[in-house]
Design goal:
The protein has helices at 55-66, 91-96, 113-129, 141-148, 160-173, 175-185, 187-192, 198-211, 215-221, 239-256, 258-267, 283-289, 295-318, 334-344, 346-351; strands at 43-48, 68-72, 99-100, 133-137, 229-236, 324-327. By secondary structure, it is an alpha/beta fold. It folds into 2 domains: 15-26 and 34-153 and 222-351, P-loop containing nucleotide triphosphate hydrolases (Rossmann fold, 3-Layer(aba) Sandwich), CATH 3.40.50.300; 160-221, Histone, subunit A (Orthogonal Bundle), CATH 1.10.20. Strands 3-2-4-1-5-6 form a 6-stranded parallel beta sheet, sandwiched between helices. Helix 2 (91-96) links the parallel strand 2 (68-72) and strand 3 (99-100). The termini are far apart.
């Protein structure tokens, strides 16, 4: 392993090897090839990895090859009006391949992981019941884990007075100060949550003050059993190459009109401090539009923060020993990678009774 690329090498399954014992596999499969009955354990193929590595393109190719539909696992793509900065699939792509869990909330809504879990499960069941293959694609690790590992989210630790007090403190001291406090009581959650993600910081502190228990421990305590027969692949790339992709994508987003998109959200009254507009790619240009940063500073900050985010994503996913990693090498396009995955899961698909290309 080259120490400079920031990647831990993981043994990859030989082409064509069964991956039936992947994440969430319970029981002895579901029937025989060609069957459409997924009542025992609906199949779920998951593609994860850091931002800009090419997950969406690979997911599209897999959906074309396997007769699948895509379930987004991106915490920002759920929001309407946030298209360019979240790299949503185009309207043409969504017309060709059905996508789920995109544009399901307004930017000022609180869209929690429990809500995502419920909606994603429903979408997966529906896709499988129609004889299609559910393909979850995204880089929000908590969203993926909530579905794949079966977290339960009891309505614990809610107190509106405490929440308002913490939000008031943030107005005075800023969200990074609250993040420091979170790191003292729940270092696991603090590592997962960005210092500027005020909503999640407040929620974690709210849970701790109400229950006396770290939110990360509460989530672990309520981990359940997945209802899906799941295999999960991760895409990765040498750090230098990924950083170049990130920088290029930021430049393309600016050319496509990201600044106007942020301006439109602000003109519609979405406060960058408390809504989805605080996300990476939006808060930077909100500062620019407010005259607090130059355009060059905003772009440089966005590139830097996105690179940091990609590093945090890899830290999260590396903890999962069940992910089968595929290196995205130069010269290998999305179709090549999709071919490799499709060949590798052929036995699993037969075992769960899925006929490739079924409609």
């Amino acid at each position: 392993m080259k120490e400079s690329d920031g990647i831990d090498r993981v043994r990859e399954a030989p082409r064509g090897e069964s991956v039936g014992d992947g994440i969430g596999r319970v029981g002895n499969g579901a029937g025989h090839p060609g069957e459409r009955d997924f009542q025992r354990r609906p199949p779920l193929l998951v593609i994860v990895g850091p931002t800009a590595v090419g997950k969406s393109a690979v997911g599209m190719e897999l959906a074309r090859k396997l007769g699948g539909e895509i379930v987004s696992a991106d915490s920002m793509q759920v929001y309407r009006g946030m298209d360019i900065g979240t790299a949503k699939p185009s309207q043409a792509e969504r017309a060709e391949i059905p996508h789920h869990l995109i544009d399901v909330a307004d930017p000022d809504e609180i869209f929690c992981v429990a809500r995502y879990q419920e909606m994603a499960r429903e979408a997966i069941r529906d896709i499988a019941a129609r004889g299609r293959l559910p393909i979850m694609v995204g880089g929000t690790g908590l969203y993926v884990d909530a579905v794949v590992r079966g977290f339960l989210f009891p309505d614990e630790g809610r107190n509106s007075d405490i929440r308002r007090r913490l939000e008031g403190e943030a107005e005075v001291t800023g969200s990074p100060a609250l993040h420091v406090r979170l790191a003292e009581v729940d270092p696991v959650a603090a590592e997962r949550i960005h210092p500027n993600d005020l909503r999640r910081i407040v929620r974690a502190l709210e849970v701790y003050e109400v229950t006396g228990m770290a939110i990360s421990e509460l989530q672990r305590k309520h981990e359940g059993e997945s209802e899906f027969d799941t295999v999960i692949y991760g895409l990765r790339m040498a750090r230098q190459a990924l950083n170049k992709r990130i920088d290029d994508r930021v430049d393309i987003m600016v050319e496509q009109g990201l600044i106007d998109e942020v301006r439109s959200l602000m003109e519609h009254g979405y406060d960058p401090r408390y809504t989805a507009v605080q996300a990476i790619g939006y808060k930077e240009f909100a500062l620019y539009l407010a005259g607090e940063e130059s355009l060059e500073e905003a772009i440089d900050t966005l590139k830097r923060e996105t690179r940091k985010y990609a590093k945090r994503q890899m830290t999260w996913f590396r903890r999962n020993p069940n992910i089968r990693w595929i290196d995205v090498e130069c010269g290998r396009g999305p179709e090549d990678i999709a071919d490799e995955i499709a060949a590798s899961i052929e036995s699993w698909l037969k075992g769960v009774g899925f006929s490739v290309g079924s409609k």
